[in-house]
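Hi there. Long-time user, first ticket. I'm pasting a complex I've been working with (about 530 residues overall). I'd like to know whether the download I got is complete or cut off, because the file seemed smaller than I expected. Thanks.
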Amino acid sequence: MSAVPVIEVRGLRKTYGERVVLDDVSLTVGVGDVVCLIGSSGSGKSTLLRCLDLLEQIDDGVIELDGREISDPLVDPREVRRSIGMVFQAYNLFPHLSVLDNCTLAPRKVHGRSRSEAEATARDLLVRFGLGEHVDQHPDRLSGGQQQRAALVRALCTSPRLLLLDEITAALDPELVGEVLDIVRELAYGGTTMVLATHEMAFAREVATRVCFLDGGRIVESGPPDQVLFDPEHQRTREFLRRVLPQ
Amino acid sequence: MSALWEPSPRERERRQVRARLTRRRVAQGSIATLVVVGGIAAAVLLSPGWPRVRATFFDSFHARESLPAIVDGFWINVKMFLIAEPIILVLGLAIAVARSSRSPLLVPLRGLAIVYTDVVRGIPTLLLVFLFAFGMPELGLAGLPDGAFFWATVALVVSYSAYVAEVFRSGIESVHPSQWLSAEALALSRGQALRHVVVPQAVRRVVPPLLNDFVSLQKDTALVASVSIFDALFTARDYANYNFNYTPYVVVACFFVAMTVPLARLCDALAARIARRERAGAR
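Hi, the file is complete. Here it is re-exported in full:
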């Protein structure tokens, strides 16, 4: 593992008006780390991910990407986002473009690849993730699971340094969750650096190198999955797990 | 806990940088505006023909002289617009709803609505004004006024209701099918679904294009000058022909601008309010 972490967050604070959404959050993500953020709705998981992608202006603290502060107002956010991939809960595919065009838009327009090169990469990934026959279809023709896989491929097509996944299975039927998680698992074992907000505790336990429990905008507890999920130190964590884990 | 929070030195520094960036953007914007506006002004004012143009189009004496008559004439345009617009909105919406009806009894109405929009939109508005203002009084229809003002207003209503109907229809069709579905699932009739679910959403969406048609209608009230109604334009032409000075045209233009700009701002404000209320937090 390299000495400089991919993402280093220190004392991050984010408010919407009077409401404090993230309060003194610190997080380090090393190369190849898979960090799972857990916690109830409104605990700040999604906001934290959006802050990392500079989609939200933060109110205090520092975010570093590969040792360079990206929370500096002088940093061009688009340049940062070039090396970060993000997948949303509601897929957010562009409905007017085919699956292939969704996947080649950024590589062609932002990363300057040629059409043939971008399409070859996208096709390879789409075939690898079982979407080979849907390449030329429009997203609305696909099932939720297929759409979310396409969204993952879209994020991967630019070979991002870091992948942010925001509850990507929360909108899916239970039987479709597996096909999406299979991909994430494959990526995790392949060494992709990821931060994911998730409600899938079993999955978090399986793939995470670290689990962070957020409550009221703070990281209450953080550690290896077996410790946080099965032997939590904090009362709040225990209460949360009792509610979400079937036992 | 938040009461205890003080911005860190780094955050304070960052705020200064953000403030500086904002100031720089404001300065850039101001300079760009000055350069563009100044450039245009210089190009006009320094052109060789400017003194002559100023004398014929921007003469303060003629502006003052023609003003009272133009105010009187403009009142006719305003009146015509104020009468026509509500009727157009109602008629346009009715035609749009008729076109999207599925009831077998309404089939003839639907056909009529299609023919109406197709034919009327194909005829130049000026021609409609001629046809109605000169032709209709000749029919000698009992109970209807035969004044040019009445029939010119009818011509505008006929013309614009066809456009507005198409705007409404595109709004109705842009509402996602799932909205129809969930209305039907609540056992609402098609009419009820239209009335309570689809049309309210459609109307919000078509406010900007509707405004476009409003502004266009306000200006097209000037078309009635061609059938000898003493509106603002006719008055201005009258004055210009007698005095060989075109300043009144510019005065009339200013009146129309003064009427359309506040309407545009009002509609922007309305649209912004709807967006704030209904799309809060959606990203």
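A couple of notes from our side: The two ends of chain A are 37 Å apart (CA to CA). Residues 174-189 of chain A form the longest helix (16 residues).
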